[in-house]
Amino acid sequence: MWLHHTDDGDQEREGHTLIAACTCGNGYVDTVLEGERYLLQILTELRATSGRFLHNSGWPDCDSQRRLRAWGDTRP
Q1: DSSP 8-state secondary structure symbol assigned to residue 54
Q2: Rounded to the nearest 5 degrees, what angle is found at the Cα of 8, between the Cα atoms of 7 and 14?
Q3: Whole-prediction pTM
Q4: Angle 15-76-59 (CA atoms, 0-180°, nearest 5)?
């Protein structure tokens, strides 16, 4: 699980994104955080799934966004 901070110098576009593995095991899911309360809510929900986002079969799915691969695997 990662917390990514984005800051392009414009305070209106500054923010945080939480990135965590999907429960399907094929990729990562990210969500833009709209404040500390939202982060705490998401972390509480992720506790039930061992820190993984629930798989959503809708498009785009986690598999098409970011693949989980072994270290050094160069496949796209």
Answers
A1: P
A2: 40
A3: 0.68
A4: 60
